[in-house]
C-reactive protein
Amino acid sequence: MWLHHGVGTSHVGDVTQQGHGLMGTSLSGDGDVPHLGHLFMRTLLNGDVPQWGHLSMRAPLNGNIPPPLGEDITQWGTSLSGDTTWQSHPLGELGKVQSPPHPFCPPADLYRKVFVFREDPSDAYVLLQVQLERPMLNFTVCLRSYTDLTRPHSLFSYATKAQDNEILLFKPKPGEYRFYVGGKYVTFRVPENRGEWEHVCASWESGSGIAEFWLNGRPWPRKGLQKGYEVGNEAVVMLGQEQDAYGGGFDVYNSFTGEMADVHLWDAGLSPDKMRSAYLALRLPPAPLAWGRLRYEAKGDVVVKPRLREALGA
Ligand SMILES: [Ca+2]
């Protein structure tokens, strides 16, 4: 049984216990205390038809998550404090959200781990599952990378059917990052890497078209692109390769070689404090794509290994 915090619908919990199961959650709030969100649950009533529940909350939970085994979750719903509503759904109605489009592993906590992309050039990549219920008008993507590549390489590739460079973090050469939104990009010039981990966060806001770029916890001068644009939510998201088509169209000479960690995507802007928290690997808001609860599928020569040392900008 697991509990997923994050914006977006999570599905396929490891609900194997007899009795009752908590299926998954879609929560927003601070840390582990949900303030607003939904819980998707099902009961497994010893051979009864499984039932799904949908709970909307507008107040902190007054009790434990998950509910004790054997407790009727419809009654658990009424044990919550504050402004809560409860709706039950037959399995079939919500059942379709159970099946992921790819055979992703159960969510993994990759704390203090890295992906090692071993070859150069490489055809390896890591597919990431991101659950977004609607197009994004704001987002923030953060990650940490460690490489001695001098050739162009992709760091984060988010493609929709309409636009392969819907979100792209790309390093065309040392000392330069390109940040794409909806096929257009802005360039951020940075000091050349001297063999250290680099942490980057890039965020974008549709209303103003403002793009922020943070390197190792420091903001760069803001730039503007794609004011009024909407980022599509049906996307193939990957590390290691740059998509020139939806889920494909790779150029191995744009592949990533080296180590990558701490990948996150939020469907929101982050405050300066949270940008610094991301760099310092401190506690972060729930995210549709979170390194601590990563659903991924590795393809080709890429392996998960422990970090050799703390990656805090060094
Ligand atoms: Ca592309």
